[in-house]
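INFO batch 0412 | record 1 of 1 | parsing
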Amino acid sequence: MFNKYISLISVITLTLFSQSIYSQNSVQSNISLTGMVKEGEKPVEFASVVLKNSENTIVAGALTDSLGVFRLKATNTANFKLEISFIGYQTKILDITLKEGLNKLPEPIMLYASSNMLSEASVTATYNEKHTDIERTKINPSASISASRGSITDLLRSASMVQIDNNNSISIRGNSNILILIDGIPSTLGSLDGVPASLAQSIEIITNPDAKYDSEGTGGIINIITKKDSRDGFSLSSSLNYGFIDRINGDANIMFSSSGWNFALGYSGKYHIEEVNSELDRFFYSTSNSIEQKIASVQKQKTNSVVLNASKKIKNGDQLTLNFKYVNPEINNNQYITNLSTTSASISFVNRENEFHHLRNMGEAVIDYRKILKKDVSDITFRGSFSRTKGRRPARYFEDDVFVLKSLGGGHPTNYSFQTDYTLKTTNKILLEAGIRYFHRGNTFKFDTYQYDSITDEWVYNDFFSTDLTHGEDIGSAYLNLSGKLKSDLSYKLGLRTEYGVSILNIVKEDESIHTNNLFLAPFLLVKKDLSSQSSIAFSLSRRITRPSYPQINPYVNMLDKSVYETGNRHIKPEQITKVELMYNYSKNGTSFNASLFYNSISDFITQVSSLYGDDALMLTYVNGKRSNKTGVDINMRHKVSPLLSINTGGSLYYGITTGSFNGFDLASNSVMWSGNAAVNITPDKKSDLSLQYFYTSPATYPQFKTKAVHFLDIAVKRLLVKDKLSASITLSDVFNSRRWDISSDNSVYRLNNNSKNQSRVLWIGLTFNLNRMQQSKSQKRDDEGEQQGLIRIGY
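INFO prediction complete | emitting tokens
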């Protein structure tokens, strides 16, 4: 609690007293430049103006004042490029020649809103919250009303193709096997729920990655781009959000340039307390036994993250970039369980308490060097990365206030990679991209479990619930991309990626080693036809793979509760997907529309199943089904009704079929599922915004399980203050308190009903200090340390 208030005081102090001064280089010179930046007749305050020499190196910079005027000094007379930028506007670049004395621009520099910056149609919510094309959807956290709630998962909901349940498990078009990157790098951190929203500058949801990207992730890629932008001079910014009660998150960022180096240092913090109430009822047909459980959970989440980015442009145009991250998500979970067991002979009643403490410390380092071989023609980039997480999960179990079981242990997932990328622009305007990469991921799992013996009053080692294994996987890959134009209105991208992986799983207790290897070819094709200046149509074809994660292959038993257990499958195979997609885009005068028709076919799909364990317990595990096919459509539309009102809506609908069986369980299913959201944005004046967002996910069918619909409404109000340097917001999430998880199963062995309700209705107040932040960058692999969420929820 003390740390919580220290963090609160620190962030408040930074928020109230932060300021930004774009200082000039201390140069004694009589060469200066002044001018004005305007939008229409209105001056633009806090626009960034930088002066670059022939080597594209920043030599001076300034911010415009309240009248839109800037002043800067140069060291010599020469030809320069003057670059003017401001968030939400197109960047303007001017060629100028400076002479001795005062140089004054004769006309104001005009900036224009960036409604069509991406050359593809965009789906845009308040302040350009989201852009969509056939390859990716890009989310701007600073424009999302969900950012105040403090988690990356809240931001992802604005994309209709993304489904997130009440336990923050993520799926894209119904597939939860997603590759998660932070700045383009697979990391070891784990679930995204531990990543503060304030860490992200933007988020990419990549459904059709080209051959440059890893082939991992049959559902797609989520790339979190962290804040690392800098400006000539010095700037400091911060934000703070408080949710009633006991929820707080915020960030502080320092960005500056010195001696040709650009530096960005950022801190993000999050402290949340949440209550979860669940019920889990089971009836077993073979014995007629039943179990009814009521579970009350209290979850405390605390996360601190620090990011340091440094980059330097060298005279010949080469660039060196260094990036360091430290994140330590911590979760305390206390479960209070009322357990009623009924058999033909008796009824028993037990109170249980489970305590879980998830501790992680993740460190990551990336070094990147880009060498210009021929200016504006070819370059080569060398990159090395290292990520390691030290994780621990101590747990204690009580029955009727008696301490009966305890465990201590954890894992140490480690990733490192080396890669080289080459690009070449040919004389006939074809872009060639090629590269090679070596990637290693490894982990050591060791959990020791002890059971209390009331007779001897001693703790006895429980071998059944203890774990001791190591896992290592090496993947070598190479890729080639070609892109260009066949005609002025017809462009293409063609690529091929080859990956060969070798994996070793060592089960230490059983003295067993399992070796696997896999060769995977991932072709990529994208063709885009411009139908007019406002519309286009695009087609893509790609293949991807999901190699089993650690929870899916861990053969040891993990006790979630004395009646729910989980184990992995050491023999599970990778799943492979072939994707085909056709997209139409249209954008004109404040109205944008895009529609995608897609078909996905997965062989050996990975799914979670449950079976009877003992007389009245469930064992969850992972198996391969035969095939999963999905055919669907995504639709997104935005219409600006008037200067005061805009409407943004999107939906994803698909028909899914699965086939296969496991130990007598039929894995066949078929159903229509859809999810969508609608947003209404009201702008009564230039400084105020009112946003309403409604989210809906239809009932869904999985092998063995069915879920009910989920829906909720969020409302937010934002107001700019203090000459637009400060913004204040009020957000009410889940207005009608309707968001909950309901799942059921009825098969030949058992009947199950499970529901879970989080504290989803929360009132947030936020304060953000923000000076001219621009976006640019790249971004951890899906949960690799054992936090994969199952379908049955007990507040764990």
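INFO post-check: Residues 234-769 form a domain with the Maltoporin; Chain A fold (CATH 2.40.170.20).
INFO record closed
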